Amino acid sequence: MVLKTIRSATDKWTQKDGEFSFLFEPYEGDEVVALDCEMTDLDPQKAELVSIAAVKIKGTQVLTSDKLDIKLQKPDSLTGDSIKIHRIRGVDLRGGEILTDALDQLLHFVGNRPIMGYYINYDITVLNRFIRPRFGFSLPNKTLELSNCYLDKVRRANPELQPDLHFEKIAEKLGVPMVGERHSALGDAITTALMYVRLLKGPVPTC
């Protein structure tokens, strides 16, 4: 944690006159960005990006018209095993974005807003592996983990419960429909956003 804080402060200093200095400014608005990425591997040190999607949440409204949905050029590590999960084939990535251009779009879309997602630290770790060597910093944004938000709300009302924290089960308990196919970056980002809003304004889940 200390090293992360020091690195973030160093990044802010080195970027103070740069194109992305706005990322390091304190955020004072009421928007959150729901983010989801599809990768080629479960190991964040090996995974390559296949697609990136994000949608903005303003207060308790999911702004589905204000979204980011990027498919990338086919990475070398795209294999049959990873295709079984996200169902994105090499042919589906023809004409995909160059990674640096995709990351540039993501940084401008997210800005200095908080980023939330399901297992969001995994996504952020992978993104930073590619952002830092290209832009000279790691994402400084505050992050919110959906499963922790769900667990906290359940436990506040029912401290003894051990809720199922699988993505589909959380959606079911919150009464949120799955948007698109599971492991579609945009579908998962929007579904995550809807679950987050439901946690903000809905009744306490029973388990």
Automatic annotation (TrEMBL):
Gene3D superfamilies: Ribonuclease H-like superfamily/Ribonuclease H. GO terms for molecular function: exonuclease activity; nucleic acid binding. It holds the Pfam family RNase_T. The keyword Hydrolase applies. Keywords: Exonuclease, Hydrolase, Nuclease. One of its GO terms (biological process) is DNA metabolic process. InterPro entries: Ribonucl_H (IPR013520), RNaseH-like_sf (IPR012337), RNaseH_sf (IPR036397). Signal peptide: none annotated. Residues 31-205 form the Exonuclease domain. The keyword Hydrolase applies. This is DNA polymerase-3 subunit epsilon.
